[in-house]
Design goal:
This protein has 4 helices and 15 strands. It is mostly beta strands and 292 residues long.
Length: 292
């Protein structure tokens, strides 16, 4: 037995998100601490018509297929518990079994089970069935083109990493995506976990634009999903990789990814949940230049 279940969470008026960790090795059974937390903090949101998003993780102990299935069982156990406690038929907008992939990205050696954070579930529960983001500033909204666009740009606004060398830390990333064709802008937040080495706190500011295209037309407000990231950063020099996996299109990989000036030094990798921070609006109404 690995001890009690652990929970890290944050919340605001829109919902709650975080991580349930320290599942027993090879087990998908929620611990008492997990179920107590879910009953008190997530179940009321779902009973009131909210929606749920989950990512299942596993350590690298055992083979990758086993760990993929184990992360699936962990998700199924959590969803079954929540459906029994909130039987109204809430929406599970995403439940992705990630297996050992996040640990592999972070450089954890094969067959190691050295940190409880990989034996975990990342969750978010929103207070509405299809949660709206906070309202944007009052601006003239241009009606979206029905076909969407394929040409976009992404840049970091702010990044923060907290943790001790060799241990799992917390990651936060704010970034903008610009629709080049329609000149519409949307902001996103990424909150997740990482493992690496470097200063206990690393901050990033104002990266350059990273251009990308999508396989099919997309709306600039539909890039929420999962992100995976890795990199080496120090001052103005950084070498980073960033993979954005929206709910509605194939993954988009940035290599290299320009993440801006770094205060502190770090090397590491992680995974996080990406959510929209405000609704798309015209670039002409932005409160700082966004044309790049």
């Amino acid at each position: 037995m690995s001890g009690p279940g652990h929970i890290v969470s944050e919340h605001n008026t829109e919902g709650i998100w975080g991580r349930l960790s320290n599942f027993d090795t090879g087990s998908a059974v929620l611990k008492l601490e997990h179920t107590t937390f879910l009953e008190a903090n997530v179940v009321p949101i779902l009973r009131a018509g909210g929606s749920l998003r989950l990512i299942g993780l596993a350590s690298r102990l055992g083979n990758s297929d086993h760990n993929k299935m184990l992360s699936r069982y962990r998700l199924d156990g959590a969803i079954a518990f929540l459906r029994a406690a909130a039987p109204g038929g809430f929406l599970v907008a995403r439940d992705e079994p990630d297996g050992e992939q996040a640990a592999r990205w972070a450089g954890v050696a094969d067959d190691h089970d050295n940190n409880e954070a990989w034996r975990s579930i990342i969750f978010s529960a929103w207070r509405r069935h299809d949660p709206p983001p906070p309202p944007p500033p009052p601006v003239r909204v241009i009606p979206p083109h029905p076909a969407g666009s394929r040409h976009f740009r992404l840049r970091t606004i702010f990044a923060a990493s907290f943790g001790l060398p060799g241990l799992v830390g917390a990651e936060g990333l704010a970034f903008d995506i610009l629709d080049v064709d329609r000149q519409m802008l949307c902001g996103y937040d990424c909150r997740g976990i990482s493992i690496g080495h470097g200063t206990p706190v690393s901050l990033g500011f104002g990266g350059d634009w990273n251009d990308f295209t999508t396989a099919r037309p997309m709306d600039v407000g539909n890039f929420g999903g999962v992100a995976r990231f890795l990199g080496i950063s120090s001052g103005p020099n950084s070498a980073s990789g960033f993979e954005l996996s929206p709910l509605v299109c194939p993954a988009i990989t940035f290599l290299p990814f320009n993440s801006g000036f770094q205060l502190g030094a770090s090397i590491g990798a992680g995974v996080g949940v990406v959510t929209r921070s405000f609704q798309p609006y015209p670039v002409s109404a932005a409160w700082w230049p966004h044309r790049g």
